[in-house]
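Support reply, case 0932

Customer input (verbatim):
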Amino acid sequence: MRKSFIVFILCSVIPVALMAGETMTLDQCVEIALEHNPQLAQSRYTKAIAGKEVLNAVSNFLPSADFALGYDHSVSGPSTTMWVDPVTGLKKPMQSSEEKTWFSSSSFVVNQPLFSGGYNYFSLKNSLAGKRSAEFEFEDMRQQIIYAVKEQYYNLLKAEKLLEVSQEAMKSSEESFKLAEARYQVGTAPKSEMLQFKVELENAKLALIEAQHNLSIARTRLNQVLGMDIDREMKVVDDLELPEVDIEMQKAVQISAEKHPILLKSTADVDGARTYIGMAVSQYMPSISMTYRYSWNHEDFHQIKHMLDNNYTWSAGVSLSIPLFRGFSRYAQMGRAKLNYKVAREVLNYYTRQVDLLVKQAYFNVQQAKKKIKVTEDAEAAADETMRLNKEKYHLGAGTMLDLINAQTSYTEAKSNRIQALYDYKLAVAELQRAMGELNQ
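Our regenerated output:
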């Protein structure tokens, strides 16, 4: 689920300066990736912003208070507008000389919303749902990163073990070739037998080159996940213990339904979408608020010290506002809110089915990988014994070249299968924990 997004995360981690060749555990690798991943940091900031939105929604229930202080000075010049003096009958200018005025004022206003049609209530619920959504999104991304680190860490360990198998196979092929060559020199084996062992030796060399290449790629990918230089040499510690998974599939499904962060986030998104319907309904409801105002005016600003004694005006009142018509905006908001709620429900249903599928697949993968470990262990033991017997027979001249070559090939394959099964099981356990929403360091 969202595989391409995980790949993008792996390619976007900032560099981390560490000493080359340092030995690192899985927990250390996870810690580095979590600390320096930019998408996780962005999600952390988003979560903090969502918390501020809750505080902003709470403020809608609290009163607002404003204090204003003003001082105005105006000058008006002589007027050319004339008027007729009714006594003398003479025309005179409306203002014959320059006039100056001063005006000082202050005011204190408190407004307390009493009822907003439910808008503030649903706005608060919306912000709380958004905060939960951001928290679960952060947790989902955190677990994605942990899984990505474990995947590349186990791939590196597997590549190291397979390289050891290839080195061992080439060494065995060299010994067999030298023995066949010695027997050919003394005339106890045909040249074709020596050449056949030579072919097997060259094939072993090719397998070794491929194993070395795979190891380099695995190290590069882990370095990339951790934000290190991709060419950096890094040693990793192998945890030889196999994690035990003692849980029934239905219990795993139940845990995922309760804990998987993407389901919890989608549930919070549904709750948030539902609040938009309430906010849309509140647009049809009346609103009630209470206001208190105290103001003071005087020509002399210095008289402000007496603002509580004279030249003041105060008022207090309650206002009711009833929305009558606002075009079709409220109808459109209601329709949009209902549709968004349906979309959120469908998203939740989709992720519910996806997580259920992922849990069951991961559970079966764990069971299959666990069985493979036992089978491959038995196969490796049998192949080891078969190769030992065929080597002894060939050294004594009682065995055939074909039997020895087949035994060596079977042993290499059996050992590689056991290593593959071992790390497939570890990764399958991490995959199950991720599907259940319980993947931690």
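We compared this against your earlier run and they match. Two observations from our side: The radius of gyration is 40 Å. The longest helix spans residues 329-396. Please reopen the case if you see a mismatch on your end.
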